[in-house]
Specification:
single chain; 371 residues; alpha/beta; TIM Barrel; 12 strands; 39% helix; globular
């Protein structure tokens, strides 16, 4: 197992943080529909997106957040938009959506059709714009974890006959991409990942085994690939991971606490922080946090739900932070919503006003806890 680099000095700690995606505004939804219908040009769409992103960045600043995102306003999906713009990956209409509880996403799939690489990715320009409008705030950018290309994608066996060659190229591709975002000015990068939540769920692991996939082998390969991709990154680049159990129209996919993967993830993945969903009983208890064995690893507790608009009790959130602090030093803990508000462009079932109230709630609670 790779030895963790504990000498890095990542000083960016945000007691109040966010996962990244925000509800698409009516202006954005209308413009994207107009573009799909050929009524406006790509340049016109981008100008509208620029204006709306500048507006919501200002809203994030007003809410008291120190790290701001573009709300993923230029994307339809949290993962496919990024992955299908890697060299060697094609997106296609699959005819099947991803099944959530009683709901299904629209059709989309990705396939590896040639050797992987990171080229002139369009999201580099997306980041540069966010960096400009963030000004004195930290511009946080979110991309899917490398695991997601394997977990959600099809791989042409004539391109990659050998699994190890695929994962080796995947790690190199992400390593190159991470450096490209750094060179564009990014100092806070988040990897979003649903595969680890599947690996926490006995039901989902049984489904994987039924398809001929060994969950333990996935854990080993994903961990190795992630560490290889982020190895030797610049000391002033903060990399975190959000582990998600599914977030589509306020529904979910998997259940299960972090115990099955906690020792591997918290003990052997060389990143700077984890965003963990803890907004309901499906997420399990805080006991798996006992495997956090580094004082420089931040755990961002997703105790405020992004799925519904009602505000949680401040006292209840504070009580749960105290419970988590029995396993991890309070100084290493932070607070955020459990997920983004719109992992896909459809968004969760709450209003924009409720969304901003949630983020304000996170900021207020964090100021009271970490005085």
């Amino acid at each position: 197992m790779q030895t963790l680099n504990k000498s890095k000095n990542h000083s960016m700690v945000f007691r109040a943080d966010q996962v990244g995606s925000l509800l698409r505004s009516d202006v954005i939804k209308k413009a994207r529909l107009q573009r799909a219908n050929g009524e406006i040009s790509l340049e016109q769409l981008r100008k509208i997106e620029d204006e709306e992103i500048a507006r919501i960045v200002l809203k994030q600043k007003d809410a008291g957040l120190q790290a701001v995102t573009d709300g993923e306003f230029r994307r339809a999906w949290w993962h496919f938009d990024f992955l299908e713009n890697l060299v060697g990956v094609d997106g296609f209409w699959s005819g099947n959506g991803i099944q959530f509880q009683q709901k299904q996403t629209k059709s989309r799939g990705i396939k590896v059709t040639s050797k992987l690489d990171f080229g002139n990715h369009p999201m580099l320009e997306d980041y540069k714009y966010l960096h400009r409008v963030a000004e004195d705030h930290v511009a946080k950018f979110t991309i899917p974890s490398p695991s997601m290309l394997h977990f959600r994608g099809e791989i042409d066996k004539s391109v990659y006959q050998d699994e190890e060659e695929f994962f080796d190229d995947l790690a190199k591709t992400y390593k190159k991409g991470i450096q490209a975002f750094y060179d564009a000015g990014c100092r806070y990068l988040q990897l979003d990942d649903t595969s680890w939540a599947y690996l926490c769920s006995e039901e989902q692991k049984e489904q994987l085994r039924a398809k001929g996939t060994d969950p333990d082998h996935l854990i080993k390969m994903y961990l190795h690939t992630l560490n290889k991709a982020i190895a030797d990154r610049p000391d002033d680049l903060k990399i975190t991971m959000h582990i998600c159990r599914g977030n589509f129209r306020s529904t979910w996919i998997s259940s299960g606490g972090y115990e099955p993967v906690a020792e591997q993830l918290f003990g052997h993945l060389d990143i700077d922080g984890f965003f963990l969903e803890y907004d309901n009983d499906r997420s399990g208890g805080f006991e798996p946090l006992r495997f956090v064995n580094r004082s420089d690893l931040n755990i961002v507790l997703g105790l405020v739900t992004s799925k519904f608009g009602e505000l949680e009790s401040k006292d209840e959130i504070k009580k749960r932070i105290e419970e988590a602090a029995q396993f991890v030093n309070l100084d290493q803990l932070c607070l955020s919503p459990q997920c983004g508000f719109a992992s896909t462009e459809e968004g969760n079932l709450l209003t924009e006003e409720q969304q901003w109230a949630k983020l304000q709630h996170v900021v207020e609670i964090s100021r009271e806890v970490w005085k």
